[in-house]
Amino acid sequence: MATALITGASRGIGRALALGLARRGYDLLLIARSGDQLRALAQEVQARHQRQAQVLALDLTQPEAAVRVATWVAQQSPDGLAVLVNNAGYGLWGRFEQLNLEEQLNMLQLNLTLPVQLTYALLPLLHQAERGFILNVASTAAYQAVPSLTLYAASKAFLLSFSRGLRYELKDTAIGVTCLSPGATTTDFGNRAGMGTELQAVANKVSMTADQVAEAGLKALFAGKAEFIPGMLNKVSAGLTSVVPKPIVEKIAAGIYEKYL
Ligand SMILES: NC(=O)c1ccc[n+]([C@@H]2O[C@H](COP(=O)([O-])OP(=O)(O)OC[C@H]3O[C@@H](n4cnc5c(N)ncnc54)[C@H](OP(=O)(O)O)[C@@H]3O)[C@@H](O)[C@H]2O)c1
Q: pTM for this structure?
């Protein structure tokens, strides 16, 4: 049976992606820090979809995290890995020079360095599978600068560019790469980013559910899309960033995100 690895599977979009992959017949390898939530999800996967799920409770920002994950995956799934989902990530809301630098570097470690390290370490196992898929979860923030989420947006722009470049390099292999860029989604993201209640209330008005995002993302992955933005409003607003002058785009974003700082 084909195996899928999902980082950040304990809740939110990652949890929904895990359930969507189990529904499609994949056995799962689940990683996040919250072991109890992962074990509960593994039981749900077994009960609802009759698929096996193994869990690894690990802080993915720790040094050597990618090496530990790669060793674990090779033990759990020695015949190859069919799907790698780089989903774990978070944002930090605030002005760059006022946010703690260590915390910002930790966010970059999780949002961009870890996906690079993990992809590099797991590509040999992905090549072993009959057909391999990499799904990188970026954000609509990948398409523009977002004042007060400056480094977060930059990390997601990196992930989008990394996905596209790698996809091209792998085009003559059996591995596909897709970048999923959700807009506002109802998860713990806003709390983790330290967003105030006013800003979260604005986001909630246009939010999609994690299940909607995951289902659309998995369809895009298995349809072989290079990049995918779920939701019409998100598609249109991201599309406008390529035609509207950047200073205007940034002023609009600042009007939404900086206003409530
Ligand atoms: N929600 C949105 O509006 C939105 C929009 C666009 C893009 N995204 C992206 O979607 C992805 C998933 O976010 P979400 O919205 O589902 O947020 P979430 O509910 O906060 O989930 C984040 C997941 O990442 C895991 N995680 C966080 N830090 C970790 C660490 N140090 N080591 C291991 N796992 C860690 C969390 O598990 P533990 O806490 O148990 O470790 C959790 O499973 C992120 O990459 C985010 O940037 C979200």
A: 0.98
Q: How many whole angstroms separate alpha carbon 230 and alpha carbon 219?
A: 10
Q: Which of 120, 152, 168, 260 is catalytic?
A: 152
Q: How far is the CA of 206 from the centre of ligand 1 (A)?
A: 19
- Active-site residue, 168 included: no
CATH superfamily of 3-257: NAD(P)-binding Rossmann-like Domain (3.40.50.720)
Cα(211) to centroid of ligand 1, in Å? Answer: 14
Q: What is the mean pLDDT of each run of 10 residues along the chain (261 residues)?
A: 96 98 98 98 98 98 96 97 98 98 98 98 97 98 98 98 98 98 97 95 95 98 98 97 97 92 90
* Distance separating alpha carbons of residues 247 and 23, to the nearest angstrom: 44
Q: Which atom of ligand 1 is nearest to the CA of 15?
A: 43
Mode of pairing for the β-strands spanning 208-209 and 132-137: unpaired
Among 7, 11, 102, 155, which residue has the most ligand 1 atoms within 8 Å of its CB, making it the best to mutate? 11
What is the residue extent of each domain of the chain? 3-257
